[in-house]
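User: Here's a chain of 290 residues. Predict its fold as tokens.
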Amino acid sequence: MELSSITILGGDLRHCYTAEYLHEKGWQVVCFHTPKFPHSTGIQISDSLKLALEYSDLILLPTPLSKDGIHLFQMETAFPCIPLSKLWETIKPGCVSAAISLQKEYLQQLTDRNCPLLSLTQSLDFATENAQLTAEGLLSELIRCTPFSLSGANILLLGYGNCGSAISRLLKPLCRKIYLLEQQSEKRQQAKVDGLCPISAENFSQVLPQCKILINTVPAPVLEPSSLLLLDSYCHIFDIASAPFGFPADITEKCLLPYYRLPGIPGRFSPISAGKMIGKTIERMTEHEL
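Assistant: Prediction complete.
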């Protein structure tokens, strides 16, 4: 898959550093409504979605694609806001797109237009490094948002994929105990070897009242509302999953529990590292047709 030109749409600061990296590697780069940054003179800046998409062999979609489910995630001062419907209408059939993650309805839109997708998370190196950056950023938010010491806190972790395991490695030396809720038996066994305490629904009444922090990594509801009532009244919930997330946005109002929805952590805390990582992954995937 020989691609040498890319249009980078919207997103956060990660996309700025992706643009710089790929430009340095000889790619023709067009940015559309990315955050303002002191870009190299060879990077083209376009305010026309149609022209921006016509320039390139590959389109890098933002993560998340949309913050409100209606408009493209783009620079906040950009005007007009681009409806997703216009994006789908403008993408040329057969154009290759790249993204970290996309919801099913967005994947279907690309499929309907016969547009191949490079899913960056298919790269093991990307998934591992992205998880580590996510864990580091989450630690900063845990310290900033919680009014108690991590050393005395029990944590309930939902999910033991790449992010869940990276989070546990970082937090295990800092907190009192990490309980894990995970459906797959192989991952539960690995978590036990790693020093975590896997639990099941039968343990909820004993475990949940002891937890001061709940971290969700699963993009789907895992705990029933009745289970949430078992949590300590001071329990802080951190949801790092992608849309549709693990909890409704009004959970604080309904359950009186502090709730922090934190998508895109690497873009907030490590944009240089995350941006270069995206660029390197795109290079590898296009060179080796992964």
